[in-house]
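**Entry details**
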Amino acid sequence: MKSYRRELWFDIPKRRGFVNITNTLQDCVRESGIKEGLLLCNAMHITASVFINDDESGLHHDFEVWLEKLAPEKPYSQYKHNGFEDNADAHLKRTIMGREVVVAITNGKLDLGPWEQVFYGEFDGMRKKRVLVKIIGE
């Protein structure tokens, strides 16, 4: 069995944002040389997410509105966590959107459904954050 590891770095210039990383992950699969296996992709920061969904701008807007209703950024005073930071909402949003995805690799390609894309989700941006890509297989 072969193994491949790569780190992706993101520095989102706003507090929140979504980045489609599907093509980057497919490049990792190609670089790994693995034809059959599994790809794990996970955010290495507690206020960021990796998830699978549709790449549609209206849906991304809906995520933003929905997440803000569930865990509003302000007022900062509503959260006990916000004694030294102002990012309690980002921790909650990450929990909702998830930490990682696992995608099957078949014939050297990500085995995704017809509309599925992989995204990095940022909920407390304006600083560098890391995502791990780990691929195992043959």
The chain has a mean pLDDT of 98. The radius of gyration is 16 Å. Residues 57-70 form the longest helix (14 residues). The beta strands are 2-10, 17-20, 37-43, 48-53, 100-106, 109-110, 117-122, 129-137.
